[in-house]
């Protein structure tokens, strides 16, 4: 559980770093995130957060933490799907091989 939580945190922090640095100061408009797990999935930051909470649930072994992890999966999974559809509509050159949330799977 701890290893999953720590891995998820690292993925989440790095993915958020990529998103924060998409635009230079003063720039406007949207860009396609590149680097890290964004090379494989649209919702790299969401994947990291979900992994964090599932790791926490495994480590703590409580019904409440498992319920929170499952709710997080449904909420962030839905957001990742919406973001994926938006990117596909907004950018003709959006990588078609990118999955929505889980690398190489979904």
UniProtKB/TrEMBL annotation:
One of its GO terms (cellular component) is endoplasmic reticulum membrane. It is a multi-pass membrane protein. Residues 1-106 form the 3-oxo-5-alpha-steroid 4-dehydrogenase C-terminal domain. GO terms for biological process: cell differentiation; steroid biosynthetic process. It is found in: Endoplasmic reticulum membrane; Microsome membrane. The keyword Transmembrane helix applies. Pfam families: Steroid_dh. The keyword Oxidoreductase applies. PROSITE patterns: S5A_REDUCTASE (PS50244). The chain crosses the membrane at residues 53-76. Its main location: endoplasmic reticulum. Keywords: Differentiation, Endoplasmic reticulum, Lipid metabolism, Membrane, Microsome, NADP, Oxidoreductase, Transmembrane, Transmembrane helix. GO terms for molecular function: 3-oxo-5-alpha-steroid 4-dehydrogenase activity. Belongs to the steroid 5-alpha reductase family. This is Steroid 5 alpha-reductase 1. It comes from Chelydra serpentina (Snapping turtle).
